[in-house]
């Protein structure tokens, strides 16, 4: 990995972790859910609009995708929240798991679809 990529991932990763922490503090388990769903959308949009169209430098793509969004969304927070909710109520834990999985796929699909449509509109006007 290039040094510029590593620095970019570290700096943006710090910011992503802080943003997730703020959401978790403000909204408890719902903050993790919001972060993960929003992250699914943002990573798909970044991939299919920004990276696919080569709009930013590689170090910035690495920082935004791996650093910011990677730290903003986290499987460990999702897993711990699911376990905590399941211990409180198996139904609530199962619902959280289902909403996270289906919602994450839906948000990624929405991000990809929006990015591709926006790309076609921009291309027509260029």
TrEMBL record:
Highest rank taxon of the organism: Bacteria
Subcellular localization, as worded in the UniProt entry: Cell membrane
Cell membrane keyword on record: yes
Chain sites annotated for binding Na(+): 70, 73
Pfam families: CRCB
Membrane topology: Multi-pass membrane protein
Matches recorded under InterPro entries: FluC (IPR003691)
Reported regulation of activity: Na(+) is not transported, but it plays an essential structural role and its presence is essential for fluoride channel function.
Keywords, sorted A to Z: Cell membrane, Ion channel, Ion transport, Membrane, Metal-binding, Sodium, Transmembrane, Transmembrane helix, Transport
Catalytic reactions of this protein: fluoride(in) = fluoride(out)
Transmembrane parts of this sequence: 7-27, 33-51, 58-83, 95-115
Function: Fluoride-specific ion channel. Important for reducing fluoride concentration in the cell, thus reducing its toxicity.
Family: Belongs to the fluoride channel Fluc/FEX (TC 1.A.43) family.
Protein name, UniProt field: Fluoride-specific ion channel FluC
Lineage of source species: Bacteria, Bacillati, Bacillota, Bacilli, Lactobacillales
